[in-house]
Amino acid sequence: MTDSSASASSAAATATLLKDYDLSIDYYALIGVEPGADAAALRKGYRTMSLQLHPDKNRDNPNAANEFQAVKRAFDMLSNDALREAYDSYLKQQRAHEERIAQLGAAKRKMRDDLEERERAAMAKRAKPNQVAILNRAATIERLRHENNQLLRSWIQDLSHRSIVTSTLSSQRASAAIPADHRTVRVRWLTSRYPNMSDTYLQDRMQSAFGPVEHVLLKVGPELGTAVVQFARIASALDAVKASVSGHNMFVSTLESVTWAMGKEPPLEYLAAARDEGNAKADHVRFGQVSQCGGDIER
Q: Are residues 184 and 172 in the same domain?
């Protein structure tokens, strides 16, 4: 079993056990103990908190009964070995997810620095006025196109390997996570139309139209801007690509193109998952002929 399959299986089992619990609540904090506390510490913490929050002692608090029941519910869960093991597993997954996000942020910054350094080197060569310099510039740009595409593809694949399965906990479905490269689109626009395009602006517009965006990597050239946009759900990516073809979204209709980052549409089983998410039509449009995104960053 692969690491991603094992993670998906573990997340699914955890989701099943904890389906009746709100995982945004810190159940250890409710009874005033740290994770890893033994049974005696749990009982002591429960007694202390239940005495403090008992409704008879808090008649002026209209939420006293609910707070008291929340402490009891936390103690009951943490006293159950199976539930506590599942909850501890969930907390461990969340910590790992936060660490991966931090690592990806550093990788993204390094990627942008590398791209900018390569562009500065190309611009220095463009300063030579003779014909030889012009030919060298063309060769340099062609090489940079290829290398930058490889860097972007490598970044997308790295995201796929590092992504942690979190969708299972919210949907309660034991399905494997969709790889990041199949939730990622490539966006192109004319810099004359959007001279001040930024990753924050692009993320806000795409997120408001199609759903949560996890990462945006932006590259602006003299005439054409390119960005890689990774959505949290494949259904969002599918909707963005479809909007580029149909013109139904005003913002997307002003862009040059929105296409699949891998150069072709995802496998059918992933598109079926998009329909299951409820954000794509069952009779999806084939985008293979218009997904010409495996090419260059600059034309």
A: no
